[in-house]
Structure formats: C-alpha cells, structure tokens
C-alpha cells in the first residue's frame, strides 16, 4: 500500500512539474545567421576563403555558456579551420555584429 501511494504521489508530482515547464516560454537572447572570426587581417581571411582552407558553413556552434560578460561558444574543430580552436568567446553585452575570438 505504501509503495502504491508513493508511486502515485511521484507520478502526480512529475506530471505537475512537466505541465508547469510547458507554460514557460524560452526567451531568445542572442542569435546569429553566421559566425565570423577575428583574423589577423582581412587579407588572411580572404586568402583562406579563396583557397578553401576556411569554409564558413563548417563552423557550427554546438554549445554555448555564459560567464560574467563573455559568451563561450563551442565549435567542433575542423581540420581546415585556420582559427583552429574548439572554444571561442564573444562579449555577452553586444547584440550587433561581433567577432568571435579564440579563448
């Protein structure tokens, strides 16, 4: 009897929590159509794009975390990616065009 009561209480509690979480709408804080990285110079970036060593579409963020005034963006390392780092950061306070920098 105790196990049945506990199971029923746990089920009701889980249903209430799930129902309440459906009522909360997430808020979009940042969004990007594409990511651009800080390069040593525009010429270096243009040459990497022209030669095929850097392909913008291959840099898809898989994770993001915020610490103080920085957003840390995890991007899988691509063997053709000259910026060559898996962790990049950008200011968390700006919503306009920003350049992602290596950690």
Automatic annotation (TrEMBL):
Keyword terms, alphabetized: Secreted, Signal
Primary localisation category: secreted
Membrane-spanning residues: none
Secretion signal span: 1-22
Location within or outside the cell: Secreted
PANTHER family, alphabetized: PROTEIN YELLOW-RELATED, RH54244P
InterPro entries the record matches: 6-blade_b-propeller_TolB-like, MRJP/yellow-related
Family: Belongs to the major royal jelly protein family.
Gene Ontology cellular-component annotations: extracellular region
Keyword Signal: yes
Protein name: Protein yellow
């Amino acid at each position: 009897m105790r196990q049945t009561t506990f199971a029923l209480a746990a089920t009701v509690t889980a249903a209430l929590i799930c129902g309440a979480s459906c009522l909360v709408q997430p808020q979009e804080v940042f969004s990007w159509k594409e990511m651009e990285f800080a390069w040593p110079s525009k010429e270096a970036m243009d040459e990497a794009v022209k030669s095929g060593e850097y392909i913008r579409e291959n840099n898809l963020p898989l994770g993001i975390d915020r610490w103080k005034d920085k957003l840390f963006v995890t991007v899988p390392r691509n063997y053709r990616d000259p910026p060559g780092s898996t962790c990049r950061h950008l200011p968390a306070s700006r919503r306009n065009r920003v350049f992602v920098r290596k950690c």
